[in-house]
Write a structure and sequence with these properties.
Elements (H helix, E strand, L loop, with lengths): L1 H5 L4 E8 L5 E4 L2 E5 L3 H14 L3 E8 L7 E3 L2 E3 L3 H5 L1 H19 L5 E8 L19 H18 L4 E5 L5 H4 L8 E2 L9
Parallel strand pairs: 1-4, 4-7, 7-8, 8-9
Antiparallel strand pairs: 2-3, 5-6
Length: about 190
């Protein structure tokens, strides 16, 4: 972090729950709650950011959340599509995971914004994915983003965004209450 700040960085994106491998307790396919390390770890991250004069955009989830489950050293990575796919699953995720984080850190001055999900188009059926086994429907993804955004607006003072892989995917996230759009740019795809 010190090197980033010294190089001129003022903001960083920090991924939190990503593909569901850590930080969340599950009972089968249902969300039980946060594990005991999440809130202290986020507090430690914010202390480090404050010490290095950086502002953080916490990216709560990643599209890998929905990818096919795989197990590494007994830990499940991905395979959590069903949580987003049902209103009960989404409600459990918001009530037992997202709300406690917002409640604890919703007014922290080092948090620049909340990023609901990184590049959701890659797991949104008919948008960036045609594979129904690792995707959710467009209206489901939009409902999830809208619900997290609404909760953030109710519980936090920070703006809310979604990291889109390209400007062409903005229609997926327009009209769901986001405070600003975040479009990613990859120099490796530029023609030289």
């Amino acid at each position: 972090l010190t090197r980033l700040r010294a190089s001129g960085a003022t903001h960083i994106r920090w991924f939190v729950f990503c593909d569901g491998r850590a930080g969340i307790r599950f009972d089968g396919k249902q969300v039980e709650g946060l594990d005991a390390c999440v809130l202290p770890d986020v507090a430690a991250a914010l202390t480090l950011a404050e010490e290095t004069d950086l502002r953080v955009v916490f990216t709560l989830f990643d599209f890998h959340w929905c990818q096919s489950a795989r197990h590494v050293n007994g830990v499940q990575l991905g395979g959590r599509r069903a949580v987003l796919g049902t209103s009960r699953g989404r409600a459990g995720l918001l009530d037992h995971v997202v709300a406690p984080v917002f409640r604890e850190f919703g007014d922290h001055p080092c948090i620049a914004a909340w990023d609901v999900i990184n590049e959701p188009e890659w797991v949104t059926l008919g948008v960036g994915s045609w594979n129904p086994f690792v995707s959710v429907r467009r209206h489901t993804m939009r409902s999830f983003i809208r619900d997290v955004t609404s909760l953030a607006h109710d519980m936090t003072t920070q703006p809310v965004t979604v990291g889109s892989a390209s400007a062409r995917w903005l229609p997926l996230v327009q009209g769901v209450g986001l405070d600003f759009f975040q479009v990613h740019w990859y120099d490796r795809v530029e023609r030289h």
